[in-house]
Amino acid sequence: MSRKTITIKDVARFAGVSTATVSRALSRPSSVTPATRKSVLEAAQSTGYQMNQAARNLRKQQSGAIVVFVPDLSNPFFSHILSGIEAAAARNDKSVFLVNTYSPQNDNADALARYLSSSWADGVIILDGSLPKDLLQNRYVPGVSPPVVFGCEWSPPDKFPSVRTDNRRGAKLAIDHLIGLGHKNIGHVTGPLWNVLSTERLAGANAALAAHAAGLPAWQCEGDFSMASGTQAATQYLTLDTRPTAVFCASDTMAIGFMSELIKNGVSVPDDVSVVGFDDIDIAERFIPALTTIHQHREHLGESAVNLLMNAINGNAADDANAPLVLPVELIIRDSTKAIS
Amino acid sequence: MSRKTITIKDVARFAGVSTATVSRALSRPSSVTPATRKSVLEAAQSTGYQMNQAARNLRKQQSGAIVVFVPDLSNPFFSHILSGIEAAAARNDKSVFLVNTYSPQNDNADALARYLSSSWADGVIILDGSLPKDLLQNRYVPGVSPPVVFGCEWSPPDKFPSVRTDNRRGAKLAIDHLIGLGHKNIGHVTGPLWNVLSTERLAGANAALAAHAAGLPAWQCEGDFSMASGTQAATQYLTLDTRPTAVFCASDTMAIGFMSELIKNGVSVPDDVSVVGFDDIDIAERFIPALTTIHQHREHLGESAVNLLMNAINGNAADDANAPLVLPVELIIRDSTKAIS
DNA sequence: CTGAAAGCGCTTACAG
DNA sequence: CTGAAAGCGCTTACAG
Q1: All structural domains of chain B with their residue ranges
Q2: Which of A74, A119, A231 minimises the CB distance to B76?
Q3: How crowded is residue A305: how many other Cβ atoms within 10 Å of its Cβ?
Q4: B42 in contact with A at a CB cutoff of 8 Å?
Q5: Higher local confidence (pLDDT), B299 or B113
Q6: Is the Cβ of B82 closer than 8 Å to some Cβ of chain A?
Q7: Torsions phi, psi of A299, nearest 5?
Q8: What residues of chain B lie within 8 A of the CB of A275, using their CB?
């Protein structure tokens, strides 16, 4: 149906040079004389030439792209990380493609394995620590599969380079803040317990509580980082005989679901209960009450992931390349927490 | 640095057949005898063979992928559309790659043009109606560039197939609801006026107001769909001498920023002012007060986009393929609107 | 059903 | 600085 596709050959004929020269003029302009460069560029222009990536990729044995596995695009937590990734990728002259691993279509190793191929990606960044084990254990063949780097989450510990936030310290900051406010009965809504983030934050929280010999054991409830699970936690909280006066939620999204349901049921935040989240997503400062939370440096997380990946791609990774890079966190105090009265 | 890459040739040698047979056994199993199929599969297994996509793409002149241009991944509005796209793409055996057009790295035609190549994508879905004009006008060459379909937004009208929500009707439903509640002084926070969504919704709102000969002209304020612009609108609203008793915001995100700032300043929603949003994002029902809004069928939007695209790819598009497909909307009444007292 | 061979569109030593 | 030629790893008519 369409006119014949224009190749480097057509450009060469038009410009009266060889295909080799066209290739050079286009990809390494300095390697040809200004005159030939000019005529090639003009020829490319007037023939409407567009490079065929597949051919180049095949020949160069690389794709010029990095793919990112994202667990849940609906979670606003990821968007800033992606900005960081894109900025850094652009600096390294790589395209970035996102793959939604949370999608039911991508729920198995087979579906994802196709993306984990050097013909698609020069490297892959995985933001999802809960990929099917099979994928990285059996499908991934070192040396032929593209380099992998984990961001935020991580899964086979220390098998790949990774950047992450200091989750334990974040949890500690949250609990310390609550204790400093005089709270003695502190609850914790965790993420899914098979997730590293959840267990790290739980460990951090428990350690902080233990350190103060606060009034433990407190109420604990397992969520899944979703808003819905936050509201379920609230439902359970409401049935408690003695309700904690403060609750640390392992994600902002859950904290919002939690507060929302509480307020709906006449429980005031922070008058009746203080709430702390984790992540500092955009809505956190806009929810009423504005959410006290743990801020993660998300752009930086994304950039670091790309840097680690580029090192792996270029083969100049440090000896301890697999030692996790841990980024600092900050407590952001807003209106959802208050000293006990 | 790594062991030699394993090709179809190695598999062929291992299985004692030709490369042609390996190729057939792998991609069209029914075209070889069960015996050869078995031995080829085993050979592939034990050699650890992995197909080289670039080579296949080059040979087949297609990529097996569709790429999606997303304007702003941080806007939760898009996640459900993407689910719909991914589900439909999987049914059509296509991979999907996302490209963030909002990223500063992708702000120009050059950066995006590289993705708009048949070597990357068999087709592209554009969810961003505000792409640089140059891209689709000059860089896009019909017949050689991959088919394009617009979802949600659209830009050169009727030049490409598109699916969209009935924006005008959505706005009308919002206004009619407010009028039905007795409001006579109704304000409108629009999206950016260079955006089709904004102008459509504005037109729908104005038409509905005019039809009722309600107390026009009402206050109008231009935002950019972001939460921050919603709070700015609120700041402006607060300075008004006679404040509208109801405000229709062209997106939920703006509505939330708007309400948040109002409440912070002691203005009650819905007691002092009713607010209606547009989109029905996840947080809408959880914000306090829960937001009355216009629901869009986002999964369906995504699926329809893929269907249109597949028609274009397979060359069986209808004659009126470029006539926009318009999806219905629904008014969801929650707690942010109330009859005037 | 299977094999030999051509070719997809590039890039890059190798000569000159 | 430029050209002729090989080759990246597949798939697919064309014979048999």
Answers
A1: 8-60, 65-165+298-327, 167-297
A2: A74
A3: 30
A4: no
A5: B299
A6: yes
A7: -55, -45
A8: none
Q: Alpha-carbon torsion A183, A189, A191, A196, what sign? A: positive
Residue with minimal CA–C1' distance to D9 is: B55
CA torsion through residues A316, A319, A322, A323, sign? negative
Q: CATH topology for A65-165+298-327?
A: Rossmann fold (3.40.50)
A316 in reach of chain B (CB within 8 A) = no
Considering only CB atoms, which chain A residues are within 8 Å of B90?
Answer: 103, 105, 111
Residue type, B80: H
Taking only residues 49 to 68 of chain A, the set having a beta carbon closer than 8 angstroms to any beta carbon of chain B reads: 50-55, 57-58, 63, 67
* pLDDT averaged over 10-residue windows placed end to end, chain A, 341 residues: 74 93 93 92 89 90 89 81 88 85 67 79 90 81 86 84 96 96 95 94 94 74 95 97 96 97 96 98 94 96 95 81 91 97 79
CATH class of domain segment(s) A167-297: alpha beta
Distance CA A17, CA A32 (A): 11
Residue A95 with chain B: CB contacts under 8 Å: 99, 114-115, 120
- Do the domains spanning A8-60 and A167-297 agree at the CATH topology level? no
In chain B, what's the furthest Cα-to-Cα distance? Answer: 87
| Residue B243: pLDDT over 60 | yes
Q: Is B280 left (phi over 0), alpha (psi -120 to 50) or beta?
A: left
- Residue in A3, A54, A257 nearest the CB of B54: A54
Cβ–Cβ gap B143/A90 under 8 Å: no
Q: What is the pLDDT of residues B10-21, one digit of tens each?
A: 999 999 999 999
pLDDT confidence tier of residue B271, bands split at 50, 70 and 90: very high
Entry pTM: 0.88
Contact residues, chain B, for A78 at CB < 8 Å:
73
Searching chain A, which residue's CA lies closest to the CA of residue B263? A288
**Tens digits of residue pLDDT in B139-190:** 787 777 889 999 999 887 778 999 999 999 999 999 999 999 999 999 999 9
User: Using the beta-carbon criterion (under 8 Å), do B98 and A98 form an inter-chain contact?
Assistant: yes
**What's the CATH number of domain B8-60, 1.10.260, 3.30.160, 1.10.3470, 2.60.40?**
1.10.260
- Using H for helix, E for strand and C for coil, what is the string for B313-336? HCCCCCCCCCCCEEECEEEECCCC
List strand residue ranges (DSSP E) for A223-336, in order: 246-249, 274-276, 293-296, 325-327, 329-332
Task: State the DSSP string of A50-79.
Answer: ---HHHHHHHHT--SEEEEEES-TTSTHHH
- Strand ranges, E, within chain A: 65-70, 95-100, 123-126, 148-151, 162-165, 186-190, 220-222, 246-249, 274-276, 293-296, 325-327, 329-332
Query: Contacts of strand D, CB cut-off 7 Å?
Result: A 16-21, 24, 31-33, 35-36, 55, 58-59, 61; B 5, 7-9, 19-20, 22-24, 26-27, 49-52, 55-56, 58-60
Measured CA to CA, the distance from residue B233 to residue B226 in angstroms comes to 11
Handedness of CA A102, A107, A109, A115 (dihedral sign): negative
Give strand C nucleotides closer than 7 A to any protein Cβ. Answer: 1-5, 7-13
Q: Is the pLDDT of residue B244 over 50?
A: yes
Given a contact cutoff of 8 angstroms between Cβ atoms, the answer to whether B209 and B216 are in contact is: yes
Nearest Cα residue in chain B from A120: B53
Q: Would an 8 Å CB–CB cutoff place B48 in contact with chain A?
A: yes
